[in-house]
C-alpha cells in the first residue's frame, strides 16, 4: 500500500499535463513502515532527460535526471526519509507498466506511479511494483488522504 496526499497526487498530475505529449518523471520521497506501507512525504520532479530519437524524443520513454537523484540522495542522508519510488506519465496510453518499464525496473523495492494523460488531461493514476528479474508486475493499493 502507498499513501499520497491529495496535493501530492495533484502535483504529479499537473506535471504530467504540462509535459504532454512527452512523458514526465520524478522521484517519490517518503518512509516505509514495518508492514511495508509506503507513505510519500514529498515529490521530487525531474526533467525527462531521455531525448533520443528511439524514444520519440521522450514521448514514450523517460529518464530521471541523474543530478536530481544524486542531489536528493545526499539531502536524505541521516534522515528518516528515503527514495521510495518514482513516477512518470503515459501520454495517450493506460496507466499500466509497459514492457520497456519492466525492462528498466532495476530496483524492485521501489513503487512506480504511472499517470495516463489523454489529450493533455491527466486521467487514471495507478501504482505498481516491478521486478525485471522475475518479470513480475504487481499492483500496489493507492490511498489518497486529505492534505495534511
Chain-wise SSE layout:
Blueprint: E1 2-5, H1 6-19, E2 25-32, E3 38-46, H2 66-76, E4 82-91, H3 99-103, E5 111-118, E6 121-131, E7 136-140, E8 142-145
Parallel strand pairs: 1-3, 1-8, 4-5
Antiparallel strand pairs: 2-3, 2-4, 5-6, 6-7
CATH fold description: Cytidine Deaminase, domain 2
User: Can you tell me the CATH superfamily?
Assistant: Cytidine Deaminase, domain 2
Per DSSP, the total helix count is 3
**Cα-to-Cα separation, first versus last residue:** 18 Å
Alpha-carbon Rg, integer: 14 Å
Q: Would you tell me the structural class of the helices and strands?
A: alpha/beta
CATH architecture: 3-Layer(aba) Sandwich
How would the global form be characterised? globular
**Integer count of domains:** 1
Largest sheet: 8 strands, mixed
Low-pLDDT stretches: none
Q: Provide the β-strand percentage band.
A: 35-45%
Helical amount: 10-25%
Report the order of strands and helices: EHEEHEHEEEE
State the name of the first-level CATH class: Alpha Beta
Describe the structure.
The chain has an eight-stranded mixed beta sheet. It has a single domain (2-145), classed as Cytidine Deaminase, domain 2 (3-Layer(aba) Sandwich). The model has no long low-confidence stretch (mean pLDDT 93). Strand 6 and strand 7 (136-140) form a beta hairpin. It contains three helices and eight strands. The protein has helices at residues 6-19, 66-76, 99-103, and strands at residues 2-5, 25-32, 38-46, 82-91, 111-118, 121-131, 136-140, 142-145. It is of the alpha/beta class and 148 residues long.
